[in-house]
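Backbone shapes recur. Consider a single case.
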Amino acid sequence: MTAYVGADPHEVLGVRRDATPRQVTQAFRREVLRGGHPDTGGDARAFRRLVAARDALLDQRAAPGDVPPASPSPGPRAPRPAGPARPAGAARPADAPHPAPASSDASALPLIVGAFLFFVAMPHVLLAIVLVLVP
């Protein structure tokens, strides 16, 4: 966190003091796009400064030996009341849980192996047969 000595992390990222973690993350990404990531030719020192400011604001890096404050358990959640169904193109509310991905019992491995045998191994086998039969 010494990468931004003398500078306020709020000023480094350009966020208000009451910014939410989401706003801090968005500001970090915006500034990375502006200043450039070292892997894409940007300034490594500026990038480290942005990372240090983001970490300071999000409190991601706890010092060794620090014990995070105990947060009260929210307890069991009440079931959500069934509301009206959303239209097909409507956006999901921000507080709605993400739907579970569709699971499939079928594995893609047989398909991959079959494609490999057909497109890679079969031409080699046919070529070997031709080379043996043709003098």
